[in-house]
Specification:
By secondary structure, the chain is mostly helical. It is built from nine helices and no strands. The protein starts with 18 loop residues before the first helix and ends with a helix.
């Protein structure tokens, strides 16, 4: 027997254009004909058919089917209708699910309402009992309040007496505390003043006895112009640290005290620093410092400028 092989073929089927008319004519001619057909096949027909099938099993054929324009349009319309039907069924399923959820929620709410209705009589009884207990407690509180009123009145009388006694004691002790605070503050200022004098003596290389005039000048200026002695002694220390002698510090301190009472000089520390800068940069002596500060004050008053700004500039 021959070996099997693979056959690839492309078959284009094309019938005659008048096939329908020919078929109709043949049917009309065969009408009324009756015949008995006996088919005799050889004994090996089945084996032959199997061989044919085996030989045709490797044949691949391409069949081109041309559909009419109307058929394609009808298939497209059918596809769109099926898609719309599928979407409608999906929406219907979603609506059904939402309806089921709403029914379940309604059932839960009804069950809760039923439970609340069943518990309502019991809650009313509990509220009634609580109201009765509250009334009884209020009555007891009223009785206790009446009992305590007398005690509070007595407490008020005793408290008023104690307050009067405390006020009398406070008047006496207040003056003592004020005097004690004043003495304490004065002691602190004296210690600070004495410490600054020692520092000035060290800076100017003099003894404390030589600073008697400076100490007297500070006391005089503080009394005359109402300037704190602590501020004046700090200014003196700054001047001494700038290189001024005790005598020069005494003279410069008077000029700075006069500037402190002038309205255009608002910060004494800035005035001291500015004065030191004036004496160093422009060669102004301590004797001329008072007139220089007076000129700055006059310019400040005339042009509405702060004296500290002029000194800084």
């Amino acid at each position: 027997m021959a070996r099997g092989f693979d056959l690839t073929a492309q078959i284009n089927l094309r019938g005659p254009s008048n096939l329908n008319a020919v078929a109709t004519d043949i049917r009309r001619q065969l009408t009324g004909i009756q015949a008995t057909i006996t088919l005799r096949t050889p004994a090996n027909t089945q084996r032959i058919v199997q061989d044919i099938r085996r030989q045709l099993s490797g044949i691949n054929a391409s069949v081109n089917i041309n559909l009419g324009t109307n058929t394609t349009r009808n298939l497209g319309n059918t596809n769109r209708l099926l898609t719309t039907l599928n979407r409608t069924l999906q929406n219907t399923q979603a609506y059904a699910n939402n309806a089921t959820a709403a029914i379940n929620a309604l059932s839960t709410a009804l069950n809760a309402a039923n439970t609340a209705a069943n518990n309502l009589p019991r809650n009313i009884n509990a509220a009634n009992n609580a109201s009765q207990n509250l009334t009884r407690n209020l009555n007891q509180t009223a009785n206790q309040a009446r009992q305590c009123r007398t005690e509070f009145e007595e407490f008020g009388r005793q408290s008023a007496l104690a307050i009067r006694r405390f006020a009398a004691f406070s008047v006496a002790t207040g003056s003592f505390y004020a005097l004690s605070n004043a003495i304490s503050a004065s002691t602190k200022e004296f210690i600070t003043f004495d410490r600054e004098l020692v520092r000035i003596a060290q800076v100017t290389d003099t003894n404390l006895a030589s600073l008697g005039k400076l100490e007297k000048e500070i006391t005089t200026l503080a009394t005359k112009y109402g300037i704190a002695s602590s501020s004046l002694i700090q200014v003196s220390t700054t001047l001494a640290q700038a290189g001024l002698t005790a005598r020069e510090t005494e003279k410069a301190l008077k000029a700075l005290a006069l500037s402190a009472v002038a309205p255009s000089f608002d910060n004494m520390n800035e005035t001291v620093e500015g004065s030191i800068a004036l004496m160093r940069q422009f060669g102004i002596s301590v004797n001329n410092l008072e007139s220089a500060l007076g000129s700055i004050n006059a310019v400040s008053a005339k042009f509405a400028v702060e004296a500290s700004d002029i000194i800084t500039a």
